[in-house]
Amino acid sequence: FAIGGEAVDRIKEALFAMGEIVLQTSVGKVSNQFVTSVQTIATNTVMFQGTPVKLPEDVRGYAVICWGKMCLRDDQLAKKSVEPLVLHLNDGECFSVRNNILLVLADLCVMYTSLVDRFVPMMTNCLNSEYELLRKHAAMVLSHLLSEDFIKFRGSIQHRFIYALSDPALYVREFVEAVFERVLLHRIAAPAVCFV
To answer: Which pTM was predicted?
Structure first.
């Protein structure tokens, strides 16, 4: 079973529209069936007549964003969803899914800081990704969370940001240098002591 171009476009449009509807209106809770459907698409566990259906990466990316928008409106769903989202942040996942999960976790960290706090080390793993764009997005997302004090500059975040100073991609390296110059060094009283 395979889905073609027009069906893929319609699924992406529907996922986008539903995510926006959930965010922009006071719909309240979305049905459990819809939540499960979106999660199934996002985690690539769709079955058709007992056979797994491989979904395009971009459809899964749209589903992750829709899932995240539902979490922003429902704290109980957010509590149940953080761990499954983090599980799909691993290196075996495609770029669009990992990138969108990173964005969703950042939004959840702003909204429900304590839910995401223990998973920040997994988010910092994206600074070591094979994808340059994912490394840059991770640096951007984490620096935003650091600058707004949603997360603290300690532990794995310190080490990963220092490692990112030697990133092979110039634009990632320059961005991380700017984060140190403009955000981090101003907050550290004694920088030499901080990194020991």
So the answer is: 0.88
